[in-house]
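Changelog note: in this version the structure field was regenerated for every chain. One regenerated record is shown below for reference.
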Amino acid sequence: MDDCRPVHRDPAPDRYGRLHVRTADLGPAHWLVERLRRDGALGIVAGVCAPGFAAYARILHPATLDERPVRWATVAAAHGRPGVTGTTRWHELIGVGIDDRTASDLGLPGVWDEHPAEGPTPPDVARALIPVLARHTRTPERCWFGLWNGYGRRDFDRLPTFPTPGRDEILLAGPLADAVSPALPDEFDELPDLWWPEDRAWCVGGDVDLVSTYVGGSPELIADLLAAPGLEAHPVVPGDLLD
């Protein structure tokens, strides 16, 4: 006999922030599912962000000091590590084993006191990312988003999903500008894991276990991301390992 009481979860909403929750046709995600089935794999860039783009970038989630963002390059210099690249892993950067990469007693006084946020794109990173992405699509008002159905605060079990490597995603719809809207009414709501515009000019990918966000798109978009002052971004290739 199972005496465990079920964990209460809020009902699935009709809107997630200002994004519409799709409860029927998942057709807008079929192109992504097919690309991932053919060329994606768990644990690599091509598995978290749609394969088939001309170029890719990794956007690092910042560490923090007194709740202010700290770049990985600053942390690397303070720890005496080589320069940060697209394949740098956080736990290696700070000199610990992978199982200790989020240990709360780590930090370097005066440099950083909180690890980079694990999970989909943090809101502040999203706010810096959105205007860059908007310049590289003809359809910023018509975008699609994937949200992992395993985020435990809401009961998404009855909603249809589409598969990605290791995850099942709920389909959301709305303008690009509303990608950050779930965090506005509730700071504990994760942003979507996947973002792409109707014209499929690019795709943004993240995951609950990552401290980075990945973007696939044109070489011009990736160059724009690498130059954006509000982002710490590095070029990657589809087969690079995730972190």
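Spot check on this record: The longest strand covers residues 167-174. The two ends are 41 Å apart (CA to CA).
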